[in-house]
Amino acid sequence: MRQSDIEERCRAYIEDWGESAPQYALMLTGEWGCGKTFLVKKIIDGRNDEANMRLAWYISLFGVKKAEDVDDKLFEAAHPILGDPKKKKWYSVGYNVLKSAAKHKYGIDLKDMTEPVLKLFKEKDENPAGCQVLFVDDIERSSMDIKEIFGYFSPIIEGDTRVVFVANERELYAGNDGYMQIKEKTVGETYEIEPDYDEALEKFWEEVTMKESPSSDERKKQLSDIVRILEVRNLRIVRQVVHQWAMFFRQLPKEFKEDDEFIGNLFEEYIVLSICNKKGEMHKSMDSNKQGNTGKSSSLAHDGDVQKMKSAWNSYKEKRRNRNKGVLGEADIKEIWGTGKINYPLRYAELWPYILMKGKDADGAWLRDKMQNSYREHQEMLRLREASKRNIERLKTLTFYQPEPHERDIKELFECVLQEFDDGKYTRFDEIIQYVQTYLTLMHGKILPNTYGYDFLEKQLNTFLKNHKDKISALPEFERVQRKQIMRFNHEGIQKCINEIFDAAKEVTGTSEKQILEHREKFLKFISNPDRAVTDWVNIPFLCQIDTDKVFEWLGDDFNAHKHLLKFLEYRYRKDFGNDKLHETDYPDFPHVESLHAKYSERCRGLEHSFRLDFRDYSELRDKYGELIQYMKDVMNQNCQNN
C-alpha cells in the first residue's frame, strides 16, 4: 500500500473523532528505517498545523521497562498543555491520556479530584486542547511484555482517543508465538509501510541545503537511482550518508566543486560505497595497520578493504547495467581482453578506505594529496576524451541504441565516417573493429544501400592497409590477446584483412611492452596502476621478464614506487582478491618474489639501529613481501595436492 494511501487512512481515522467510536487502534508496521517515523511525524505536523493546536501526540517506547515509564513518556508529551494554566480549561479531550499525565504532574489520581476539575477533563468544548490521537512508536523496542503494552493503552482507546501503534512487527512475531491473538483484541487495522524514496530523499536533501552545488538536482536524481539499484529499504542509512556527503563536499577545494563531472563521479562512488559499508557488506580491517605506539595509520591501505569496495562497486555497476538494459557510459566499462569479464573502474579506490573507514582519523595531508592526484587524472581523461570525440562514436550509438526522432537519417553521418576511415582517422585496433561491426550491422539490417556490401568493405579495408598499416596501434590490454579471441567475420576476404590488421596491432603493442621493461620512467608509471596487473601480460609471468636487481635499482629511495610495486604484485598474484587466486601462469615468478624479499631484508639489516626512520617503512615492506611469499606457497602447495 502506498504511503499516501496509508496517510489518507490515518487522517480519516483521526478526523472521525467525535463522530464514531471504533475503540480499536491502528498498527503501522515496516522494517527499521523504512520511513515509519518520518510518515508519522508528517501526519502529526499536518494535524496540529491544521488545528492550530497540539491535538496529535507522539511517544516512543524505546527503552521503556514498566508502566510507570509510559506515564513519564505521556507526561513529556502532555507537558506543554499541563504546564500552561491558561489551557486547563480545555482538558476535555483525551481524558484517559491526561489521567496518567495529571497524576504525574500533580501527584493525584483523577478520581480524587474535585468535581469541577473532573468536569473540565470530561467536558466537550468547541476549542479542545489535548490528545485527539496518540502515536506510540517503537513498541518492539520496549522491555515490557506486548500484552502489558496493549493492556496499558486499552482504556485510552476505549475512552475514544485514537491510538496508532508503530512497530517493526517482524520483531514482535519473532519474540511471541501468541502475538496475533494478543494483537487482535486491540488492533483493528494494520498497514505495512514501504519506503517512499522520492519524498524522503527530497527531505534529506533539504536538510543539508546543498545549494552550493551547481548541479544539486542532478545529484538528487543520481542519489535516487543509486538507492533503488541497491534496494535500500533502511532510509536512515540514506539520511546518514547524505549528511556525511554534505560534510565531505564542503571540504573539497573550489575547483573540484565547480567541475560537475568530477563531482558526479566522486558522488556516485562515495554514496554507493558508503551505503554498502553501512549495510555491512564491507567490514573494517584497518585497525591493525599501525606504526609503532603512535597509532598513526600506515600509508599502506589494506588491499582487502580496496577489494571489498571494488567488489561492491562491480556489483552495483552490474545491477545498474541490467537495469538500464545493458547501457552504460563508455568510461564506466573496462573489458578485459580474452577473459570475457567486464570490470567497472573504481576511480578513487585508494581514497575510500581512509575516507569511509578511517573517517576523521585519516591523514588529512595524504587525502588532499590523493584528491589532487585523482583530479589531475580526471583532467587528463577529459583531455583524451575530448580528443577522441569522433563521429564513429555517434554512429555506433545511433546504430545500437534507440535514436531520437531527429537522428533517424544517418546518411550524412555514415558518409562522413566512411571518409574519415579512408583518411586514416581511426587506426586503433578496437576502433577499426568497431567500424567494421557497425558497418556490417547496418548492412545486415538493410539500412545501407545495396552498393555498401561485403565487396565494398573488403576493398576499403585493403586500401586502408595499403595506406595506413604502419599507423595501426592497440590498447595496452591487447598485448596477449590471441587471434582466435578476436571477433570472427563470415566473409573470407574481410577476415583476411582483419587478421592482417590484428598482426600489425600486435607488433606495435609488443614494441610498447618492450619499452615498459627497458625504461625506468615507463616501468614506474606502468606499476603505479595496479589494475594493469590483472589486465596486461595475462598469459606469461610478469617478473620473469625483468631482472629484479634492475627493478630494485629503479625503485631507488622512492618509497611510493616501492609501495606501487608491492601493490601491483599483490594484485597480480590475486592476494586478498576474493575467490580468485594465484594463476599457474605466474608460478615461475615465485623465486623472483623471494629475491625481492631478500633485498628488502638486506636493506633493513643495513638500516636498523642506525637512527634511520625509513627502517620502519622498509621493514613493513619486507614483512608484506614475506606474507606474499607465504600466500603464494600455500596456493601452489594446495594446487599440487589437488593434482
UniProtKB/TrEMBL annotation:
Ranges where the record places region Disordered: 283-303
Name this protein carries in UniProt: KAP family P-loop domain-containing protein
SUPFAM superfamilies: P-loop containing nucleoside triphosphate hydrolases (SSF52540)
Coiled coil ranges: none
One protein family per Pfam: KAP_NTPase
Record-annotated KAP NTPase domain positions: 20-243
Lineage, broadest ranks: Bacteria, Bacillati, Bacillota, Negativicutes, Selenomonadales
Compositional bias annotation for Polar residues: 288-300
